[in-house]
Amino acid sequence: MTIRNILLHPDPRLKKIATPIVDLSDELRVLADDMLATMYEAPGIGLAAPQIGVLERLIVLDCVKEEGADPRPVAMFNPEITASSDELSVYDEGCLSIPEIYAEVTRPAEVSVRWMGLDGAEHNETFDGLWATCVQHEIDHLNGKLFIDYLKPLKRQMITRKMQKLKRELAR
Ligand code: NI
Fold it and tell me: What pLDDT does 93 receive?
């Protein structure tokens, strides 16, 4: 498994709409494994392919938080939200492409998702809690949307300037 480089905001590749996956190739399975390794190493609870510069509809996540609980790595090809609850939930979100910045985002508290798994089969599951927040955040990445896009423009600009500064520092 290879740890991939995670792109930092602002980057034009994080604003692009990712392409649907037609065939589940071995190459894509390797990519999913690399993404899971990259996510665990970060550490994070979710990662979308555009965040490592691959503009295809693939996300990985593992939102198991309880100490000592078994990990549940999930790879979703072409994930789609098929239903959302009216009930909302607020979560202090972060993103591996926007390190050390957190902000409250309001999203549906429960979502049903359909995706193709590593086994090539269709899966359907309803998520709540952190899993619901995370899966919506990651699917947003496939549509070129970041969690800061939900914030007021002034706050978003402030974060983007901070990130530009951080990227300049890292480039030195
Ligand atoms: Ni993110």
Answer: 98
Output the CA 119–ligand 1 centroid distance in Å. Answer: 25
pLDDT of residue 65: 86
Q: What is the DSSP string of 65-102?
A: -STTPPP--EEEEEEEEEEE-SSEEEEEEEETTEEEEE
Residue 27 lies in a domain: yes
pLDDT value of position 128: 97
- Cα dist. 93→41, 85, 131 in Å? 19, 19, 12
Widest CA span in the chain: 47
Instruction: Give the Å distance between the CA of 135 and the centre of ligand 1.
Output: 10
Spans of the chain, pLDDT less than 50:
none
Give the chain's domain count.
Answer: 1
- How remote is the CA of residue 10 from the centroid of ligand 1, in Å? 12
CA distance 40 to 75: 13
Q: Which helix (H) or strand (E) is 157 found in, with range? A: helix 153-171
In a domain, 143, yes or no: yes
> What is the residue range of 124's domain?
12-171
Asked if 55 and 49 touch (Cβ cutoff 8 Å), the reply is: yes
